[in-house]
């Protein structure tokens, strides 16, 4: 957490609110979140830059800058990018690790309670190297059932583990892997190479549908995820598998099982209708 829908929501918020704003000052209060750049260099390269497009790649929030650099933020478990117009709660500001002061008087804070997320500044060549190591975007029109089937072919790992491998499919984490596999009626522990073309097509549709629906509801908030205005996501009430171990399966009524056996993460499935 956050996964694709949450980082997509944040990026869209930032793009709408911050495009064209000039950065006038940079404050780093917790340098341990920085990657590949030191605080003084970050301040030097960001100050005076104008924010262009904000967008998402995999689970990264990408902020294009007029200098050609890109600011890359991976929120992970407790990170959030929060726009502060002077009304940000003290509790949120207390956990600010990096803050960008903008020409219009607002600030953009990277708040991270446990400081497990990262902030990096990438040149065009470095960004290309990072993004080239990532897999296909599941919301890209090129991501078809046939494409997914080809990606799975010959792989012996559990299908859930493959879906969460960012080098294969970008942006899917534990929540949406659980949800998509439940929708497609596929056992998360099944060997990926044993998912046939028809099932791969059904899984592709399930992935696209659940990600799109979550984006429409501004992501899933259990505890720490917030959008750029500090609001919670609304998709948590629409989850049918993740977080529902022990509940009846909405499809067949059998009890949902929770296990850590597949990849060390919580997997929830219906052993009756997921095959």
Task: Characterise the protein shown here.
A hairpin with a 4-residue loop joins strand 4 and strand 5. The chain has eight helices and eleven strands. The strands form three sheets. Strands 2-9-5-4-3 form a five-stranded mixed beta sheet, sandwiched between helices. Strands 1-7-8-6 form a four-stranded antiparallel beta sheet. By secondary structure, it is of the alpha+beta class. Helix 1 packs across helix 8, helix 5 crosses helix 8 and helix 7 packs across helix 8. The chain has two domains: 129 residues, N-terminal domain of MutM-like DNA repair proteins (Alpha-Beta Barrel); 125 residues, Helicase, Ruva Protein, domain 3 (Orthogonal Bundle). 29% of the residues lie in helices and 20% in strands. It is globular, with a radius of gyration of 20 Å. The model has no long low-confidence stretch (mean pLDDT 96).
Question: Any key phrases for this structure?
Answer:
four-stranded antiparallel sheet; 29% helix; 11 strands; N-terminal domain of MutM-like DNA repair proteins; 8 helices; five-stranded mixed sheet; 275 residues; 2 domains
